[in-house]
């Protein structure tokens, strides 16, 4: 019996030895250990680096004239045509007064003169003249200028192409209705800055008073084909939504002259939108037009 036990134990020992020898011949594979306290930094290639370019500062227009009477600071969406209409001036005068090279390019924040310049310094100041700058002239050819010369259009910066009346006579214009059509919409300072008059396509649009064309075109959004007349230093009139324009800029027109044909350009129907502007501010045309 004891021999049998010893024989079994011997076999068991032999088997265990074989197993252990087999295990010892192989490398142990350990489970990966994650170190949560460490930060792994991956190499960064040049292609993954975001390059931040310096942002150029936005230029700020600084002018001592900002906010002064007779000057206007350009806002987003402004055009010279709109600025001229809102200030009772010709856009061509704005170009000249401000020495603008490209009328289609004005900058937000730019300060523009919107009133005629004052008397030039050369006309108001007497400077000493040296002998070397004196030109010889026959006696009697030099005549002193009359005292009223300072108020002439050439000195004040106003051109002969702009009809100018004295301040006391600016309101003495003789007005007529620009169209015989019925009134579709009356004046509203916020919603409708003039009168809307009905009619048929091609109906004549007439100048409401003597004046000069300061704009003829379609460059003002919301007005379609537009004519603007300057009557004097105080009043402008505007005629919008025409299908055809019969006049050109800087052309003198008479009261009752056909300046356009009624249409529906930039409008929902055929109509004439008529505005009267007093120093650029819209006023009710019905207060100026004769009773029908």
Strand and helix map with partners:
Layout lengths: L1 H23 L46 E3 L6 H7 L4 H7 L13 E3 L7 H4 L28 H4 L26 E3 L9 E3 L6 E3 L4 E7 L7 E6 L4 E11 L6 E2 L4 E5 L9 E7 L2 E3 L9
Antiparallel strand pairs: 1-2, 3-4, 4-11, 5-10, 6-7, 6-9, 7-8, 8-10, 8-11, 11-12
Q: What is the compact description of this entry?
A:
The protein is of the alpha+beta class. Helix content is 15%, strand content 19%.
Characterise this structure:
The protein is an alpha+beta fold and 292 residues long. Among the domains are: 71-113, Membrane-bound Lytic Murein Transglycosylase D, Chain A (Roll), CATH 3.10.350; 183-287, Glucose Permease (Domain IIA) (Distorted Sandwich). It is built from five helices and twelve strands. Strands 3, 4, 5, 6, 7, 8, 9, 10, 11 and 12 form a ten-stranded antiparallel β-sheet that branches. A two-stranded antiparallel ribbon has the order 1-2. It is globular, with a radius of gyration of 43 Å.
Molecular shape: globular
**CATH topology (fold) name of the domain at 183-287:** Glucose Permease (Domain IIA)
| Average pLDDT figure | 75
SS field, number of helical segments = 5
Strand content: 15-25%
Can you tell me the residue ranges where pLDDT is under 50 for at least 5 consecutive residues? 14-31, 33-41, 121-167
Radius of gyration: 43 Å
What is the name of the CATH class of the domain at 183-287?
Mainly Beta
Tell me roughly what share of residues is in helical segments. 10-25%
SS-based class: alpha+beta
